[in-house]
Amino acid sequence: MRAGLTKKGQKELYSKYLYDDLGTALFEAITLLPEYGLTRADLRLLSEHAADLPDHVRNVSVVVELGSGSGEKALRILPHLARLGPLTYCPIDLSGAALIRCQRDLADIPQLTVVPIQDSYIDGLTSASRLRKPDTNMLVLFLGSSIGNFEPPVAEGFLGMVRQNLKPGDVVLLSTDLVKDLGRMLAAYDDILGVTAAFNLNLLQRINRELRANFDLKEFRHKARYDDSEQRIEMHLQSTAAQIVTVNGDFDIELRKGETIWTESSYKFRTTQVRLMAERAGFNCAIQWVDTEWPFAQNLLCAR
Ligand SMILES: C[S@@+](CC[C@H](N)C(=O)[O-])C[C@H]1O[C@@H](n2cnc3c(N)ncnc32)[C@H](O)[C@@H]1O
Predict the structure, then answer these.
(1) Whole-model pTM above 0.90?
(2) Which of 13, 35, 246, 264 counts the most CB atoms within 10 A of its CB?
(3) Which of 13, 16, 45, 173 best tests ligand 1's pocket when mutated (most atoms within 8 Å of CB)?
(4) Which residues of the chain fall below pLDDT 70?
């Protein structure tokens, strides 16, 4: 946080810090907003295709979800697989609040054991893969287009690290939001009720709470913009005045009027880009299910 806020040029913070307990609750609210079509598209595709998953990934003993959030999406998938035999579900998330909801909401599925892992994606996946029974396969879920939060080379490197934790026969279900009409893309990150603004501003309040900083939230404004050449939505917090913020009595952050702190990128994809990225990372892209109402793809990637 210190490195990102004191660096020369564009100040930035990792988007993973958005998800403390309040940030997690605000994200849940975002998924219900009329402007945020991503979650509904993801759920529509799961409603249509989740029952077919056992045909594509056989003999599954462990399902791992990277950044599970509340586990609402896994709830659509797990009953189809648990029906075939005992199954372990490992939701991996940095947010303890999200994992508590997962455990509560998925407890009733017969033949399912939930093993929550509070860790970062890859470390969590490494721990979860130890739970796999011999000669069985794993299904990894990475939904909500969270892969879009990484810069493209990082996203590809990340998929490569996921692949290193898998064996041939294992499958990744990867969701990706697709490039679409500019107005719809922007509104999804700048809703009229201001919930996304609250989600973004909570990051500064979190730093105030946890690191004893003195950000004055009235002096910041939420900004969302689209960079066409990079195919990404950027979320920023813009300083509305020249100001100096102190963190923990330890160091100062100087902000000019109009200067921004970049808090999240959400890259948008074309289906061909996803397929090529997956192939370079060691997967075959077997299927791409596309939602037509809100252009969005679920990609079924088979470890080679
Ligand atoms: C955008 S939400 C998506 C939640 C859910 N997968 C969905 O599709 O609605 C991202 C989730 O990933 C978690 N997360 C973000 N960065 C993470 C990281 N590096 N390691 C583990 N979890 C992370 C957040 O806490 C949050 O619950």
Answers:
(1) yes
(2) 264
(3) 16
(4) none
